[in-house]
Design brief:
The protein has 324 residues and is α+β, with helices and mostly antiparallel strands. It is built from eleven helices and 15 strands.
Length: 324
């Protein structure tokens, strides 16, 4: 068949379609001139485009991500992609989500990993960005190190080691300054002497405040893990009151003789305890002793140039320094 002849279902160079029957195929059409056979008819251009689209496969869209996957890590849910989880094939996650290791499902059908859910956010973000981004006041390096060791993402292990060296250098030298204030107030309260019988009473109450500043936010976290407020019958760590990583303000009262427990709550009066000794701090002397024990165990020492002896003995100012 010449270049100008048409086959069954074929196209000629004039975009005509040939209607060829078996009988036509047997006939000699070798004498057909340069024009198309008479039994050809023009085809609508839209139909041609549709037929061509069926013959030519659509190009792949490589920008489409893999299907999202929801993980349940220690009770916290995270949604990511399979490509993110398998970006490091030799890691624990790479093995789990490439079929090399079995995975467990929770009751909702999500992949379950029995590890710390809060810390996993830093690991997942590293998989996404290849950067280890931690808050300035991050205090859970030990826990993060254990989780990183479990997932065995080698670049993350190296990034964590670099971060620990960086933090260690920043924490070597530190200063701790504590300003103390104490005043006496009168507290009024009612005492139930019998059913339907109440009496009004009052008593003097010692009120303490301590403004603590340290260049080491790690030390303030350590201090916060030792000191607890007693309020409404519960103990709560002062760490929850630490809004500035380098500054902490404490306000508390000593126990008031005869003051009913519910009056502490009603009048918003907090008491201060030190754990694990379970000792209540009812004076500045006890407070200073406990803070000194914690600070000295963390490498601090008393600044020889400040405070003056009178200030230190009167529990007004405490300044400690640390050199490493």
């Amino acid at each position: 068949m010449t270049a100008h002849k048409c086959v069954l279902g074929g196209f000629c160079h004039h975009s005509f379609v040939a209607l060829i029957t078996p009988q036509d195929a047997l006939e000699d059409i070798g004498n057909v001139s340069g024009s198309c056979p008479a039994f050809l008819f023009p085809l609508n251009p839209a139909v041609i485009r549709e037929m061509r689209s069926e013959l030519v496969p659509a190009p792949r869209d490589f920008s489409v991500m893999s299907e999202p996957i929801t993980l349940n890590v220690g009770g916290k849910l995270y949604t990511t992609s399979l490509s993110t989880l398998t970006s490091f094939p030799d890691s624990m996650l790479g093995a789990m989500f490439s079929g090399k290791m079995p995975t467990k499902k929770d009751s909702q059908g999500n992949c379950f990993i029995d590890r710390d859910g809060k810390i996993f956010r830093y690991i997942l973000n590293f998989l996404r960005t290849s950067h280890l981004d931690l808050p300035e006041d991050f205090q859970e390096m030990g826990l993060l190190r254990r989780e990183v060791d479990f997932y065995q993402i080698q670049p993350l292990i190296e990034a964590l080691q670099e971060k620990e060296v960086e933090l260690s250098k920043a924490e070597k030298n530190a200063m701790l300054n504590i300003s103390l204030d104490q005043k006496t107030q009168t507290v009024h309260f009612t005492v139930r002497e019998a059913p339907q019988i109440y009496s009004l009473s009052s008593s003097n109450m010692e009120v303490f405040s301590a403004n603590i500043f340290s260049t080491s936010c790690l030390f303030l976290k350590l201090l916060g893990s030792k000191l607890y407020y007693c309020f409404n019958g519960n103990l709560s760590s002062i760490s929850s009151y630490l809004q500035d990583p380098n500054h902490l303000t404490l306000d508390w009262v000593a126990s008031v003789e005869g003051l009913p427990e519910e009056e502490y709550t009603r009048q918003n009066l907090k008491r201060l305890w030190v754990v694990p000794d379970n000792k209540q701090i009812n004076s500045f002397q006890v407070f200073v002793e406990e803070v000194l024990k914690i600070a000295l165990s963390d490498g601090f020492c008393i600044d020889s140039s400040h405070p003056h002896t009178s200030d230190f003995m009167n529990n007004k100012i405490i300044r400690l320094i640390r050199y490493k």
